[in-house]
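Interim report, section 4.2 (structural modelling).
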Amino acid sequence: MDARQSGVIFKTFYETDKAKENIMTISKLVVDYRLKRYSIRAISDTTLNLKRGKITALVGESGSGKSTLASAILNCIPNPGVIVSGEIYFHGNNGEKTIEIRKLSEKELNQYRWRCVSMVFQGAQSALNPVMTIFAQFYETMKVHDKKTSKEAAYKRSCEVLKIVNLDPDRTLKMYAHELSGGMKQRVMIAFSLLLNPDLIILDEPTTALDVITQDYILNILKRINREMGTSMLLLTHDIAVVAKFADYVGVMYAGKLVEYGDTLAVFEKKLHPYTAGLINATPSLYADLEGLKPIGGNPPDLVNLPKGCVFHPRCPKCMEVCKNYMPPDTFDSSGHLVKCHLIKG
Amino acid sequence: MSSLIELRNIDMVFQRQGRVIGTKRKFHVLKNISLNIEEGEILALVGESGCGKTTLGKIITGLLRPTKGDLLYKGNSVYKIFNTNYQEFRKSVQFIQQDSYAALNPVRTVYQSIAAPIKAHNKELSKEQVFEKVEELLEIVGLIPAVQFIDKFPHQMSGGQRQRVLFARALTMKPRLIVADEPVSMIDVSLRLSILNLMAELNKKLNIAFVYITHDLATARYIANDGRIAVMYLGEIMELSSVSELLNNPKHPYTQALISAVPIPDPRLARQQKALPIKNMDFMSMENRIDGCPFFSRCIYGEGKCINRHIDYVNAEGSYVKCCNLEKVKRWEKQV
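Predicted structure of the assembly:
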């Protein structure tokens, strides 16, 4: 598992410890979608560290920017999206080789994608080619990344990855997409992402279209992959119950900004940011009290006309004067827990 | 007094062209469904994707006709020809779709979409009277001030706002029952409760019964707290009971597995959850159904007697359960 590098790039403030601890560092990222008459800022000034070997979840609703972030990591944001500023560092080889994604050439990006970082897309069930067998698609992907892959080697690897997701390889590899159920297609997509043994897998709403029982099954498979193979994972979802069960760390995004980040237990317990608290209080569960539940007032953010000051202030029950005019600073506590709110003083 | 809606032995088979020309493939989507819906009650219809709940919802609304079975509205069969009740039935039972964007005409304003049914059924009303009615409905569903929304097109509103327009449209007919098909699954999490609260309000204030179709047990519990839940699996109702009884004492093995699988939004409790009481992941196909229990292949209590015969409903502690092996099923213990 190595990362191709275009020269070893160490930023001066990077300690080797940090590079060992984190598999990826996203630094002050800004992404815009440039339309004819105006721009939409999908991600504004976001800094995030993904811990090596752990499952990090990103929670956010529509307009939060999490899908854009996933595309940014693979440097494949669809047109007219563009990374305006910021850097994305991948710390390969256990932290010994750091590369900056935007500085990679086309050839190097090809090596980076799928080998270092792979992705399971949202609505993965439509991502399979309908006129090719599963094996044909696996083989094609492997050949694209390494022209010398033989059919036998490809078949062997395909069987390996399918076994990891509990699918019968001999049966599944001969099938076409339409012959598989939703849950099976999703497992095929997860197997697909494992093909080149990546260090980091991004999963964009991996279980949204699936029923609860299949969801539980698939999330358990992912957890097993993480624990047994040490693969780091970035899980994008709007379902905080899934986060509670499976994520080690969670980041909360709103209107393109990271408003809270920390250890899952800490974030759920402290609920420092009013949006985090609002989300948790707006999610009904099977047994908890129904009385405390309340939706978050107001409307989803309008990314074309973001409010002045804190982006969340129009919907915030704890909004103060300062929130309407000034962006809140990033506050970190000793454990690395981040909150972006005027209420919390550093 | 008869129930508002009564379903008797409903069967629904869809036919499609087979692989060889001349053959037909039959999908037995609903099997022997019998259900009563009373005035003003909230019934949650819960099940995985593909279990037939939307099909059942459409049959209740009169949008689909079942291949077998009867539907009674206020005691009278809806399918008998020359039924003078039919017009009243179609107005009284309304359907709210899951995808609010697809359900609204994109080139009609909110006013036009809501005024159209009012005008069609009340030709004697003047323009001002129709406008007043539309304003009134928009305010009932929480789109206040109404004038702000009246001239908007669907793409100019958020998902939650569009869903409210669907409710307003359904209310134009003064329905006795609204069938809501996954009304909140395409809405942001932070806004879901406000739509659910709207439904609860309509139920209490206007005494409108609801059939709430969902795959999410947690929201079903929230809205149907005093009502009933029917759990469906592969086109059959596996368990029917009150919400509290179902959540605290689920009797059918499928219900037990379903409840165990629902993730809990509390990390400490969530990580204590044990493995699911379910066998493999293979669904039985709806195409070549075998007689007997559809859950047999995944049931940990499955035995020979579960297949190749008709399974009856058993009345167990106030719940209706479709299981022939209930004595062996362990009493469910709350995991948290």
